[in-house]
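Example record

One chain of 291 residues, shown exactly as stored in the release files.
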Amino acid sequence: MATELDAELVLDAHATLGEGPVWDAEAGVLWWVDIEGRRIHRFDPATHDDTSFETATQVGALALREGGGLVAALADGVWIVDPEGGAAELLVGLGEPPDVRSNESKCDPVGRLLVGTMAFDYLPIGSLYSVEANGSVKRLLDSLSIANGMAWTADGDTFYYIDSPLRRVDAFDYDLATGAISRRRPYLTFDDRVAKPDGMAIDAEGGLWIAFWDDGEVRRYGPDRALDVVVHVPATQVTSGVFGGPDLRDLYITTATTGLPAEALPEQPNAGGLFHVRAPVPGVLPHRFAG
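Predicted C-alpha cells for this chain:
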C-alpha cells in the first residue's frame, strides 16, 4: 500500500499557472514561474519572502546557468535572464508560430536545455527541442500536444518524458555525447481518465515523482514502477514538483488556478499557491545550463 502524505501551503501566491520550480542550492532559494501571469518568482524558504519580475511573453520554465543567472523558455524562444532585474537577452528563437508557446523545459546532465512547446488550443503541433550552450537547436520530437515532465536517470542513459494527453511516461535511450534520443517506449501508463500527468522530478533512488493535473496529487513510482507514495495537495491543478532544502528532501509543489470553474474556487482558496512536503527519500539537484 502506498504511503500517503499531505502537502502544506508555504506561499499563498494565487498564481494563474504556477510551474517550473527549480532549486538553487547555492542561494538556498526556489525559482518558479507563473506562465500565464508572465512572471519569474524567487521564493526564500527561510523567510517566506517571494519576489518576482515580469517577462515580455509567457514564460514556460527556467533553469540555472553555469555562468550565473538564469535561462528561460519564453513564448518566442530561449532567453538569458538577469535575476537581479529581469533584463533578458535572446539566445535563440525557436521559430514557432504565434499560437504555440514554450511549456516545460529542463537541462540534461551535460547542460543542454530541452524545451517542449504546445499550442494554445492543444492541437498536436508542439515540438521538443534541444538547445546547446552556443544557441544551436535540434528538433527531437514533433506532433506533441502538451509537452511536459522530463527527467534523466543518474547515468544519463535514459530520458523520461510526458506528453500529458497520452497519460503515460515514455522512456528513450539518450546519447549524452550528441543529445540524440531513440527507442521510444512506454514506461508508465495511467488508466485514470481524469488525472493527467504533468511535471516530473526524479529522486536519488530513481523514483519518479509526477504531478497530476485535475487530481490534486503528486505520486511517486519507484524504480520497480510501483506506486508507493501519494502526496495530497489541496488544489486540483497540480503542475510540478522539485526537491530542495539542505538534504534535498523538501519537495516544493506548484499549482494553478487556470482551468478551475468559478464555483470551485471557494473550495480551493489556496489554489495557485506553493506547497511543501517532506519526502521519505532525497531528490537530486537540477542540472544547470552549460551557457
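Notes: The radius of gyration is 17 Å.
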